[in-house]
Amino acid sequence: MPEPEHIIVACKNQFFVLDVVINFRRLNERDLLTQLQKIVKMADSEEERLPSIGLLTSDGRTEWAEARSVLMRESTNRDSLDMIERCLCLVCLDEATGPLLSDTTCATVMLHGGGATKNGGNRWYDKPMQFVVGADGCCGVVCEHSPFEGIVLVQCTEYLLKYMIGSPSKLVRAASVSELPAPRRLRWKCTPEVLKLIASSNEKLE
Predict the structure, then answer these.
(1) Are 9 and 85 in contact (CB under 8 A)?
(2) Measured between alpha carbons, how far is 161 from 141 in angstroms, rounded to an integer?
(3) Cα gap 54→74, rounded to integer Å
(4) Taking the domain 6-200, which CATH number applies?
(5) Given the residues 145, 170, 196, 204, the one annotated as active site
(6) Per-residue pLDDT band at 1 (split at 50, 70, 90)
(7) Sequence-separated (6 or more) residues with CB below 8 Å from residue 27
(8) Residue range 13-36: average pLDDT?
(9) Cβ(202)–Cβ(195) below 8 Å
(10) Of 87, 115, 97, the residue nearest 16 (C-alpha)
């Protein structure tokens, strides 16, 4: 199987495929900013909005395994799950959660997104690495420990911080002028059974 060349971006409880390698070329920072801006705009579309499927992954392991089996009955869902499970990582673009931005608040937001009514569905807790960037400046990483120890993520985070501090010119604010294919929204077929499972996960998270 070829190496994955995409990440998944969560925005407003919706999931999008962002190809980070196009025509054998890695996207640069300016290109990535452009693609993320496109995703934010796409996520604003009320007509395209789908149920908060990510809430299912906030449930217990057994409950999520059962919900995943239900999702897998539909080919559309199988394709979307495959894209998530094969992606390099998740980037979660969170909305602001509230006026108080203490370390404790940020830590809890990383864990549960501020609840189901805020960013709780803007996660995929079954994925080992999720980089969370909040509109209010609350940023962090969510790690699912099964594949590796926490120190791996600590070293990865330290590398990223050193890169950003050592290369301030890479922190772009201008959009790219390159012609890039649009990111793709992941589609889900939500049967009444799936909607019932989402409602149950929503209630537990709250």
Answers:
(1) no
(2) 12
(3) 17
(4) 3.30.559.70
(5) 145
(6) low
(7) 19, 20, 21, 35, 180
(8) 92
(9) no
(10) 87
